[in-house]
């Protein structure tokens, strides 16, 4: 009898242990299933795109602080740790993050999916050879609706690789993004085609891909990488350019001093207006809020 009771106790203990283990595994599985995917992006513009495609399935961390130059950034130990702890790293490409290859060579890439968001986008060449700090291509692809569609597709594919259980969610969000981008592009292609003047002036040459989309031409106070003070000769050339094309609006970016743009505007009897390159992140505006605002400002300046 005692032997029977002992055997019964062992069986009950085993079943209880098994049940607890299954419950623990189920809970653990549930946490993993419901937890957000850790995504690291190199800089702010990519955060706008990832937020749209990833929605509430992702937690986004940005490596480069707002206002810092992406090509001058040097990852610290905390950045390497962040990458090692994340599932997905997304960078812009086209040479703007010249530290990426070296950084990825120093971390465990087995558990990290890496996405170059510029993949399959036709670049605009700005130099025959890039130097130590810059690539040879204009990197501002996110300011083009057409290019942003491709970037978002690359982001979607990366998310699907690391989180296949939510594949349908990411694909639906990409489909919505593409439809919205194409609709906005169609609206402004029609509006901008009506403008006889196709020329505008910006603080720095960030809108090359947008110009390619809409057959426009930008002239700028600073170059693609916002380097160097403009010379008197450069300012005179811009004044002549504005007078030739009757340009009365001089655009400047949020993270750049408007001093030179103000000087230029006074010379031509015009005004300055802020335009958004997305390099300062805004949680209250999504990608399309910013792009529509930019396009409307450019359109009004050309009328």
Automatic annotation (TrEMBL):
Keywords: Signal, Transport. The keyword Transport applies. It holds the Pfam family ZnuA. Residues 1-21 form the signal peptide. InterPro entries: AdhesinB, Bact_metal-bind_prot9, Lipoprotein_PsaA-like, ZnuA-like. Belongs to the bacterial solute-binding protein 9 family. It comes from Clostridium oceanicum. Transmembrane segments: none annotated. This is Metal ABC transporter substrate-binding protein. SUPFAM superfamilies: Helical backbone' metal receptor (SSF53807).
């Amino acid at each position: 009898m005692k032997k029977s009771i002992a055997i019964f106790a062992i069986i009950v203990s085993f079943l209880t242990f098994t049940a607890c283990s299954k419950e623990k595994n189920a809970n653990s599985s549930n946490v993993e299933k419901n937890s957000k995917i850790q995504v690291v992006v190199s800089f702010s513009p990519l955060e706008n795109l990832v937020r749209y495609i990833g929605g509430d399935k992702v937690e986004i961390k940005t490596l480069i602080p707002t206002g810092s130059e992406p090509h001058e950034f040097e990852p610290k130990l905390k950045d390497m740790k962040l990458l090692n702890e994340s599932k997905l790293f997304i960078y812009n490409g086209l040479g703007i993050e010249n530290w990426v290859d070296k950084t990825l060579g120093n971390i465990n890439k087995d558990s990290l999916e890496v996405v170059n968001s510029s993949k399959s986008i036709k670049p605009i060449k700005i130099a025959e050879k890039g130097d130590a700090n810059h690539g040879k291509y204009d990197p501002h692809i996110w300011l083009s609706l057409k290019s942003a569609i491709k970037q978002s597709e690359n982001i979607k594919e990366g998310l699907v690789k690391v989180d296949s259980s939510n594949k349908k969610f990411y694909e639906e969000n990409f489909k919505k993004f593409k439809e919205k981008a194409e609709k906005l592009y169609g609206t402004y292609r029609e509006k901008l085609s009506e403008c006889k003047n196709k020329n505008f002036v910006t603080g720095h040459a960030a809108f090359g891909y947008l110009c390619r989309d809409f057959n426009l031409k930008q002239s700028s106070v600073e170059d693609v990488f916002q380097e160097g003070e403009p010379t008197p000769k450069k300012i005179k050339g811009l004044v002549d350019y504005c007078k030739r094309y009757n340009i009365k609006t001089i655009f400047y970016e949020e993270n750049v001093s408007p001093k030179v743009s103000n000087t230029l505007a006074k010379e031509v009897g015009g005004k300055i207006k802020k335009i958004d390159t997305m390099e300062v992140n805004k949680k209250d505006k999504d990608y399309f809020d910013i792009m529509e605002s930019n396009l409307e400002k450019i359109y009004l300046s050309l009328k």
